[in-house]
Amino acid sequence: MRTDEGWDKMVGSINHYAQEHNLQKTSLKRIRKRKRFMDELAIDEIILDPMAKLRTEVFFKVLDSVITQLHDRFPERSLNIVQQMTNFSNEKLLNTGDDTLNPDIVSDLCGCYGHRETL
Q1: Between 109 and 10, the higher pLDDT residue
Q2: CB-CB contact of 84 with 112 (8 Å)
Q3: Helix or strand or coil: residue 102?
Q4: How far apart are CA 67 and CA 65, in angstroms?
Q5: Helical ranges in 21-102 per DSSP H
Q6: Buried b or exposed e, range 11-37, using 16+ CB within 10 angstroms
Q7: Do the Cβ atoms of 112 and 76 come closer than 8 Å?
Q8: DSSP string, 12-43
Q9: pTM of the shown model
Q10: What is the DSSP letter of 114?
Q11: HSE-up of 64 (CA within 13 Å, CB side)?
């Protein structure tokens, strides 16, 4: 999720939602300059593209915060179970192309619960 592909997927779903509900986009043109003092030598980089700024200053920071909180609150074993459960999402199941699950996925999930049976 914390990739440019995840960002593009989220923006695409937002645009699709806006089109379905006849919502108009607002103008994103806004150039903001940072004030500098006379004796300041370094120039901080300003992100001019509003979507790039939203991606770096909001989207990635929120995801980083969520990931950090998950690692702080739950043991690694619990997080492994959640990662294995993503293999059973509708998207992954529809993309398998057949009616059978990959035995490795099921074995890994059983390993998280302490069962070591093989398929």
Answers
A1: 10
A2: yes
A3: coil
A4: 6
A5: 50-54, 60-73, 76-85, 90-95
A6: eeeeeeeeeeeeeeeeeeeeeeeeeee
A7: no
A8: HHHHHHHHHTTPPPPP----------TT----
A9: 0.53
A10: T
A11: 7
Q: Give 36-69 pLDDT, tens digit per residue.
A: 777 766 666 777 788 888 898 899 999 999 889 9
| Residue 85 structure tokens | 């459960």
Q: Which amino acid is at 112?
A: C
Residue 48 CA to residue 55 CA, distance in Å, equals 12
Contact of 33 with 46, CB cutoff 8 Å: yes
**Whole-angstrom distance, CA of residue 94 vs CA of residue 65:** 31
| Token pair for 19 | 């089109």
Length of the chain: 119
Structural tokens at position 107: 């074995």
